[in-house]
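Q: My labmate handed me this sequence with no annotations at all. I'd like to see what the chain might look like in three dimensions before we decide whether it's worth expressing. Could you predict it?
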Amino acid sequence: MDEVGTIILIVGALVGVLVFAFIGRLIGQKRGQSEGGAVMGALLGPVGLVGAAFLPDKRRQCSACKGRVPDDARKCMHCGEDMPVQPMPAVYQAPVAPAFEVTVGTWKNPVKCPTCGWTNTADEDEMAHGLKCEKYGVGFVPKPSKRK
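A: Here is what I predict for the chain of 148 residues:
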């Protein structure tokens, strides 16, 4: 076989795989499994299309007539019964680490303002020379508060 014949054979096989995948997707979509139908059609060809027709039905079921309806349906297309609204899936949110202050080379000590009782933080220099209350701005020389 020459090069042109080989290229035509490869392109024809790829087109066939795509066509069977598309048809398998359409068959699977009717059963709520479009991805499964596409994979079966692409990998197994005509046999996969038959297999896609027998995939288990994953769509919602009407409580009144037991008919299968699309997931976003508000009424049953078979009997007209109102379908309950499905809750949206919860979106995962990663836990947020608590904010903290990192001071290189110094240690922050918790100290209480003698005027208002607000807990401030003071480094070694502020412990020796004084600081202003973070809440009211009153200046004071701190005494370290007792740790629990």
